[in-house]
């Protein structure tokens, strides 16, 4: 049964963990603010002493990080089931690279492009990457291994295009692109939050509607087909959903690595393999990872800030090596 006590307790713990990290992120930084004053100001009850720092600087970046973490985690959770590979993630399979190539193209070549349209640009880039990957993988009959290899190739091509743009672009635009590519939440505004929120609000329920089909896809192809699953069309829809989640997250928060790899594994250990339980847990874990990494990046070497993507990479790279050593046949 879905609403069992153990799962409810787990979700309460994860929610409290996110609230705690959120509270610390609001109060701590280059300018520490008393916790009670910070929360009162965040809720609109406090005086104006800390209003600008909290409402215009910290709250937008915290919400952007939380929503981006949820999106990356959900995208990775879907991809790991669709590809039946525990190392699959939006970064590994090439979705992030396609989204990044599209966004960097706009940042460098179209300086006046509106922020609110960036998720659409990122989705188009991710969709193009998916189309090429899917076409290459299933040409003359394909396998999940071919799909992953095609993703690696697309990532390399997207990386080469981004390098070219950073070579020929204007210095100011290149600096902005570099900050964005590092996965930094610096200078995020409410525009970033409102641009990202609709994508998460729409695609998260859609993913939950596909939870049963994701469970069936964990079986072999013959068994899944025998239970009424149209394999190719279901996989294609799920990959498109994954592209939307990852593309929107990448457009607002930059290329944050390994969240889509780590959070689904943690969720599986805590909530089990049933996707109706695993997906909400993965989303909360992804949000917590990004918020915590952003807080660490602000607190480690003040007044300098480390990009959140650097912190997640420092955590995620050893974790990926651990998975490779534990499951050497994963790729």
Task: List the keywords.
globular, mainly alpha, 331 residues
Topology:
Layout (H helix, E strand, L loop, with lengths): L4 H23 L7 H8 L8 H32 L7 H4 L1 H15 L8 H20 L6 H25 L2 H11 L8 H20 L1 H7 L3 H6 L4 H23 L5 H13 L3 H25 L8 H19 L5
Helix pairs in contact: 1-2, 1-3, 1-14, 3-9, 3-12, 3-13, 3-14, 5-6, 5-7, 5-8, 5-12, 6-7, 6-12, 9-12, 13-14, 14-15
Distance between the termini: 33 Å
Pattern of helices and strands: HHHHHHHHHHHHHHH
Task: State which percent range the strand residues make up.
Answer: under 5%
Model regions low in confidence, pLDDT < 50 over at least 5 residues: none
Shape: globular
Radius of gyration: 20 Å
Largest sheet: none
Q: Mean of residue pLDDT?
A: 86
Structural class: mainly alpha
Number of helical stretches of at least 4 residues = 15
* Helical fraction: over 70%
Q: Say how many strands there are.
A: 0
What would you say about this model in short?
The protein has 15 helices and no strands.
Structure description:
This protein is 76% helix and 0% strand. It has 331 residues and is an all-alpha fold. The protein is globular, with a radius of gyration of 20 Å.
